[in-house]
Amino acid sequence: MKIFFNRFLGFIVFFFTIVSKVISNFGRTVYNQSAKE
């Protein structure tokens, strides 16, 4: 059970890292496009 919990926790951390990277990249792209116009 503990091993499963650690894996689950690791997956959540990994998932949030990817999501935050995608969001920051997307936000930067939108900001750059709006700054150009």
What is the secondary structure topology, with strand pairs?
Layout: H1 2-36
Give a quick account of the main beta sheet: strands, pairing sense, barrel closure. Answer: none
Structural class estimated from helices and strands: mainly alpha
Mean pLDDT rating: 93
Kindly report the oligomeric state of this protein: single chain
Q: Percent helix among the residues?
A: over 70%
Please tally the β strands and state the result. 0
Q: What's the number of helices?
A: 1
What is the percentage of strand-forming residues? under 5%
Give the H and E element order.
Answer: H
N/C terminus separation: 54 Å
Radius of gyration: 16 Å
The coarse silhouette is: rod-shaped
Low-confidence stretches are none
Task: Give me some keywords for this one.
about 35 residues; mainly alpha; 1 helix; about 95% helix
Offer a quick outline of the entry.
This protein has 37 residues and is mainly α.
Characterization of the model:
There is one protein chain. By secondary structure, the chain is mainly alpha-helical. The chain has one helix spanning 2-36.
